[in-house]
Amino acid sequence: MNVQPAGSPGAAPSPERLPERRGSSLSSKTSEGLWGYLFIFPQLLGLVAFSLIPLVSAFVISMMNWDGMGTKQFVGFQNFIGQLRDEEFRIALVNTVYYTILSVPTGIVLAMLVAVGLNRVRGKILYRLIYFMPNITMSVAVAVVFMWLFNADFGLINMYLKQWFGITGPSWLTDSRYVMPSIAMLSVWMGLGGNMVLFLAGLQGISRSYYEAAEIDGAGKWQQLIHITIPLLSPTTFFVTIMSIIGSFQVFDQSFVMTSGGPAKASYTLVYHIYETAFADFTFGKSTAAAVILFLMILSLTLFQMKMSRRWVHYED
């Protein structure tokens, strides 16, 4: 029988050394874990202080009758019931949904078309810069400029409509039929650059081999767009759709600056309703209840979209 020395290459590890190695491995993992928690601690602290605690506080205040100064009185779900029965809340909800229907599909389609066009030309970096600039401009400043553009008497839009087409432009911001489409046009223009950059990144991630195979099979540009580009851009489209809907339900700046919710509350949105309920009526409990309802609506829509995405979002293998 051959017995190998303890120090030979084929020898089994000494039983006495196994606990030492395991202990060393566990100590190394513990040290790495501690360093990981140390690095994420500042972000975790900010998340708790500025997100989780305010979120819990909002749910608590939504069940209180509070004017922001005096004592709080617990009223349960009365604030939620009152908001759902409130005519102004229903008007704001209808206006917000209408604005979402106007702005989100239009913004996504235009951003995708612009991205497809820029993906085929030279100087992409310069064009990306030009298109992205409105996205980083202050929304209040943009709204003030568009107030002048949409002015019914001396605005540039109506002036060019009259000179070029002989059309008398409408009262964009003072007619209840046109005020929400006007705000939607402003929002589409502002968000076009950001969505375009996302679509452009998605386009550059599509392998060129798909288009080469389609060209060999005789597929034209339109067929390539329908059968290759759009399906393989579906993950980007899904992300842009979710973010656009969330942003559209939170529209406030444009309505506040350009129309103050008018005319006749035609541009009165949910966030504007939350603002007025809190800082005009000083009923913070009702205002927070409306904010919680808005949060639950956005959460429900997002979860629904994530569930439905399994049917139409295609990931490249």
Automatic annotation (TrEMBL):
InterPro entries: ABC_transporter_permease (IPR051393), MetI-like (IPR000515), MetI-like_sf (IPR035906). Keywords: Cell membrane, Membrane, Sugar transport, Transmembrane, Transmembrane helix, Transport. The keyword Transferase does not apply. It is found in: Cell membrane. Coiled coil: none annotated. It is a multi-pass membrane protein. Residues 1-29 are annotated as: Disordered. The chain crosses the membrane at residues 34-61, 97-118, 130-150, 178-203, 224-249, 287-304. Residues 93-305 form the ABC transmembrane type-1 domain. Residues 1-15 have a biased composition (Low complexity). Belongs to the binding-protein-dependent transport system permease family. PANTHER family: ABC TRANSPORTER PERMEASE PROTEIN, INNER MEMBRANE ABC TRANSPORTER PERMEASE PROTEIN YCJO. This is Multiple sugar transport system permease protein. It comes from Paenibacillus lactis.
